[in-house]
Input
Amino acid sequence: MPIFEFKCNKCENEFESILFRSHDTVKCPECGSEKVTKLLSTCSFKSSSSTGEVTASAGSSACSSCSSGNCSTCH
Output
């Protein structure tokens, strides 16, 4: 079940919603408006070699082919 992030066009509330089917209606939990915009979700993961523990880092712009943190430097 994919979880998507949305922003309400009426009250600007940002929220997450599980969509079972692509044509499901999404409503803002704050104001009930169906006029919402799907946001681009970003998430990346990196593992620590010393402990093997996996940590999540949201919003990273680094791609998997480099470690510069800015894909414009390698693309």
